[in-house]
Specification:
The protein is α/β, with parallel strands linked by helices. The chain is about 50% helix and about 5% strand. The longest helix has 30 residues.
Length: about 425
């Protein structure tokens, strides 16, 4: 048997946490999770933080489980074979992930990974010893409340007898030092691998995982990191999801309204869409690849069974019936449409996109055409072309707004990454 964590000699014991405290804090947290979707984000954040810290303390007190050599070797064989799902925000990446969710050969993280798009810069401002707690508590909150709407509590609920979330953290404490030792020097995404193995440990299980072949994570806008991901994970599979640009843009705007955010990020949305469609169009000029598959959202809705068979063949798994029902850790997920919150969970919304297109005015359509007309035409999404001068002026204006926004974001991150004074 192999002990899976570093020795803790010299460290003070972690404070013990009464299981009933976790149950109480979990109940308070759950009361803030409105149905069908969260509206008071501040209240949710406060309740989630208190609960996740209590869970972490309980797991540290209990300590990591003991892993066998066979478990470890099996887990790292799976770790080397990720599936990265990506595309522009609101392009259908969540639906693709949820259709893969319940396949026995796949361990699918039920929330966005965001390792390179978000967590990497946040970790820079922390001491490496604080990384497990930071990421662990963040993922506890994501497992309880993945996308601010039902379903919540993807690992189940805690009780006086035990908590599945404590077991998740204990598994993370076991896998973290092993992943760091094996992958830390060559894979910038190694912390996410630790999360993935901990989740697999608690959901599918790696001890009896003879059917488990790959782990899956989805992160919108990961297109800009594809070269790095393929160098770090040569056996990875890439699922690039695209959708009609009008529908993506309309859905993005509706999602901002649903979350109570002002629609002031139009330039950022357009730039992210441009990056995604440019990469997809570039790939159409290259020979077919065993590692990259383009998935059209429209095809997924019009011929779900056929699209699922195609994805299954690409991933080397059986096209099982569970792949036509979207779930998160086996729990049916809500409508795949931002415009339809009343559709039954676990069912696909196949309404035509015309109603989404109607939400766009002439200005919206012109801006989309200026940024995406060439790439869209290659991908089967023809947009009405603009006169060359007007197109160029719109591109300059959109790009200038993006540069300003990018500078502001990087400045904020620079300030946040500066070491904190003790």
């Amino acid at each position: 048997m192999t002990r899976s964590t570093h020795e803790s000699a010299g460290k003070p014991p972690a404070p013990r946490c009464d299981p009933l405290d976790i149950v109480r804090l979990e109940e308070q947290f759950d009361q803030q999770l409105q149905r069908p979707r969260v509206t008071d984000l501040n209240a949710v954040r406060q309740a989630a933080t208190a609960w996740s810290h209590a869970v972490w303390a309980a797991a540290e007190s209990a300590g990591p489980p003991t892993l066998t050599e066979s478990e470890i070797e099996r887990a790292f064989a799976i770790a080397r074979r990720p599936v990265f799902v990506f595309g522009a925000h609101r392009s259908g990446t969540t639906l693709v992930r949820d259709l893969l969710d319940h396949h026995p050969a796949l361990s699918v993280l039920p929330a966005e990974g965001t390792m390179l798009t978000n967590f990497a810069w946040q970790l820079k401002r922390l001491e490496s010893a604080d990384w497990p707690r930071f990421l662990g508590c963040e993922w506890l909150r994501r497992l309880a409340n993945p996308i601010n709407q039902h379903p919540y509590w993807l690992l189940g609920r805690s009780s006086a007898e035990g908590s599945p979330y404590v077991e998740f953290v204990r598994a993370l404490l076991a896998w973290w030092p092993l992943v760091e030792a094996r992958l830390g020097s060559r894979a910038t995404s190694w912390p996410l691998v630790g999360i993935a193995l901990a989740y697999a440990h608690c959901s599918t299980g790696v001890r009896t995982a003879h059917t488990l072949e790959r782990w899956v994570e989805k992160t919108p806008t990961n297109e800009r990191f594809l070269a790095r991901l393929m160098v770090e994970f040569p056996e990875a599979r890439l699922l690039h999801v695209i959708r009609h640009p009008f529908a993506v843009y309309a859905s993005s705007r509706q999602a901002m309204r649903n979350s109570g955010h002002p629609s002031g990020d139009e330039g950022r949305i357009l730039r992210q869409m441009h990056s995604s469609y440019r990469e997809a169009a570039r790939r159409t000029d290259l020979p077919a690849s065993d590692s990259y598959l383009l998935v059209r959202y429209e095809d997924l809705l019009e011929d779900t069974a056929g699209s699922v068979r195609r994805m299954a063949a690409f991933l080397g798994v059986q096209p099982l019936p569970v792949m036509v029902q979207p779930t998160a850790n086996g729990i049916p997920t809500p409508s795949n449409s931002s415009f339809d919150s009343d559709n039954a969970a676990g069912k696909l919304t196949r309404q035509p996109a015309d109603h989404a297109f109607d939400a766009l005015d002439r200005r919206d359509r012109e801006r989309l055409s200026a940024m995406l007309a060439d790439h869209g035409a290659k991908l089967g999404y023809p947009l009405v072309p603009l006169p060359a001068l007007r197109r160029r002026l719109l591109q300059i204006r959109i790009h200038a707004g993006w540069v300003i926004d990018r500078f502001r974001t990087r400045w904020i991150r620079f300030l946040a990454a500066r070491p904190r004074r003790r």
